[in-house]
Amino acid sequence: MAAHQEKKLAEDRKHQNMQNDNKTSQGQWGRAWEVDWFSLASILFLLMFAPLIVYYFIMSCAQYQCSLTDPLLDLVTGNKHLSDIWNRTPMLTYRAAAIYSLWVTFQVFLFVSIPDFCHKFLPGYVGGVQEGAVTPAGVVNKYEINGLQAWIITHVLWFANASCFHFFSPTIIFDNWIPLLWCANILGYSVSTFAMIKGYFFPTNAKDCKITGNFFYDYMMGIEFNPRVGKWFDFKLFFNGRPGIVAWTLINLSFAAKQQELYGEVTNSMILVNVLQGIYVLDFFWNEAWYLKTIDICHDHFGWYLGWGDCVWLPYLYTLQGLYLVYHPVQLRTAYAIGVLMLGLLGYYIFRMTNHQKDLFRRTNGNCRIWGKKPEYIECSYMSVDGTKYYSKLMTSGFWGWARHFNYTGDLMGSLAYCLACGFEHMLPYFYIIYMTILLTHRCIRDEHRCSSKYGKDWKCYTAVVPYRLLPGIF
């Protein structure tokens, strides 16, 4: 009996050690295994207030001409009650539900049913079936990259309707903007809840799941690393790119159409916002295969943070500049407009070239030239959950020698340009640069904490060579 108990205790210890080893190894990746009080407080805050923040911004434009202070002043002084504001808010309509359902269904169809053909005739474009990065469990998923194709088909149909068929007005998105917000929330919460249930009971790959036991953390940050339905419907790839980012340019076009309808012209500021943000969206889909190696796909689990965020936060708050310009049309001086355009294009150039250098370095395993020279790098190693040892190189040349996240620096320059196009009358359009600064700084810290755990002493060597995160000589 005693021998049997000792054997059982030894097996339990072995099992516990295996779990600890698994957590230690997998802790180098993605979200946490355990929840500290600060993380939990932050998550509860976001779950409670993020939907209200989105509503507040959209309501401020619809009822207060985009003033962020007037609604609060009305409430504090007693001029208005919450019920007054809410009663003036458009509710969910059958028309909005039909529009949104058709939109999402169409994007799902384009995502799973039409294999990419753009890579067959567009030089330099990488589409079709591509492999993602190795997951914590050592799995390499395959993806059908067809986002550019979906964007092109969608916009061809949009312009065909606007110019020839006239089935609906180009202002349809603006005209149903708040009812569509409720539809987006329903989808965001539905897909996040489904993803959590799926992670608990029928995950795609159980070894790539993380469960803390804290409901709010698991709901927010996700359980499954790569939830999928069928062979090709990958939740992360679909919701990160479609339906939100495909819609981004359509939303801006609808805002421009509304400006034309209301004022008889489209201002140069609206054109700037459409052009600069359109470049960003097109770049995203042209480089969708590269996107498979980014933090969203390689490290984030799929939960409310991505599910609701991609359905609601992204399309509603990333398009605030265009919405603002419907209510406050701004005609910029030519010199100022050119300056904003140059800032946006320079930011895009830095963003794209920084990522291009990294991609070229990875694809050639360092056998390339960056700025006319053979790139310098630090050799690193890490372990997956199954105990396999992998090697990678961290580049210290080109833009990556200036700062560890210099691509984010270019992204922030572009973000600032979007805001500057709106002038200086209101703060609302500047939410985007404030938010992006917080988001990308937080991403720097998250990524570096993960890399420190993943690479250990090799990471310390890297940060000694490249000491700055975003701004050379400053931060």
From TrEMBL:
One of its GO terms (cellular component) is endoplasmic reticulum membrane. It is a multi-pass membrane protein. GO terms for molecular function: 7-dehydrocholesterol reductase activity; cholesterol-5,6-oxide hydrolase activity. Pfam families: ERG4_ERG24. One of its GO terms (biological process) is positive regulation of ferroptosis. Residues 1-15 have a biased composition (Basic and acidic residues). Residues 1-25 are annotated as: Disordered. This is 7-dehydrocholesterol reductase. It comes from Serinus canaria (Island canary). The gene is DHCR7.
